[in-house]
Structure formats: structure tokens, C-alpha cells
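Async update (no meeting this week)

Hi team, since we skipped the sync, here's where things stand on the single-chain job. The sequence we agreed to prioritize is pasted below, unchanged from the tracker. I ran it this morning and attached the output directly underneath so nobody has to dig for it. Comments welcome in thread, and please keep replies under the output.
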Amino acid sequence: MVNGHVLAVGDLDGDGRDETVAGFRGQEFQLHVFKSESEVGERRTRHVLDAGGIAAADGRIADLYGTGRPAVAFTGASTATLKIYSPR
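Output:
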């Protein structure tokens, strides 16, 4: 990650283990989700959440819709964006 800038942590998939959403605002900016593949988190897999649509400056994970499931909300500085990634 070039110019990594923001992390948000929360249990996105309801498995009892927190995922980490990491954003960066450098060249070819992206948002990544790091998912724990073990009980204690020594192995994680990286998944692209957004490939180039937001230069992440701040982010939160919260139940934005009152459904009991968390959504991911990030703002982009140089992209002047607010994006909400709704739970599935």
C-alpha cells in the first residue's frame, strides 16, 4: 500500500472474528479487507473491496441500517467521495 491512511475493524461476516478494512490514498488507491482464517488471527487473507474508487481518508464499520449487520463507510479525500458498502 502506498500512503496507507486508515483502518477500520469489525466483524463483517458474523463469524465472531473481526475483519480489518485498510484504505490507502496513494497511487492506484484501493480498499482491502483482511479476513482472519484462524481463531487467533495468525493467518489472514486479503480481498479487494474497492479497486480505485476511493482515496480513503477515514472509515467506520457500524450497523448503519438497523439490521444487526455492519456496513462499511469510508470517505475519500482527493476523490471527494463518501461510499457505503452495505452488508450482504
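Quick observations from my side:
The chain has one domain: 4-85.
DSSP finds no helices and seven strands in the chain.
Reply here if anything looks off.
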